[in-house]
DUF3348 domain-containing protein (Caballeronia grimmiae), 230 residues
Amino acid sequence: MQPKKRTAVSGPALVRLLARFADLDVQEPGASLSDKLSQWLGWTDAIALSTALNGEPPAIGGARSASAAQQHACARVRASLASAIAPAKAAAPLRHRAREAVPQVDVPVDYAVYRQRCLSLQQAMESDIGALRGRMRAVLATQSDRAARLAVVDAVMEQALGARERTLFAQVPALLGKHFERMRRANAETDGSSAWLEAFEKDMQSVLLAELDVRFQPVDGLLAACHAAH
């Protein structure tokens, strides 16, 4: 029998990596981005968005210039999170740290250690990027009336889409778990070495770095708007 040929997936690296690692048959979206986005917005979100687009922007005095300080702040947060995901000097692999509490005992490898690591990094990304996004909106709101309106729109969109985004990102640890189990089964049928764990850790890092890129897109957009307004 011929194996099923999967269609190449386009889109962000996060989607392509998860489709490959979790062996998913991902179909290209049949609807446009605006159509899909409209399905995520409830009527209360639509009212808030319409008010933000058509209402008077908030009056914020003390305009500040979008200097290199904002760019450095964004780069600093991004570098800190990337370093937490994939340290420059690789720390002891998670499987080794899991055994430190019980020396000289062969503890079975369990995905729970990696899942907790993944969840902790996702929480750090949500917290740090969310705070940075708020600060970037505050800077943008002081640039001009149009910039202030854009800042309000971004706040409305973050509020409207936040729950759906958390639900989608919550699937990442589960999909990585499927990848982990498949790699473990394949290893059991071969030489039984631990090289597969190192490969899995690199795969998990690549997925979380791709997630970092997706989560940072609104901040990148606000930074670009700050420069344009300035």
Residues 98-107 have pLDDT under 50 and may be disordered. The chain has nine helices and no strands. The first helix runs from residue 13 to 21. The two ends are 62 Å apart (CA to CA).
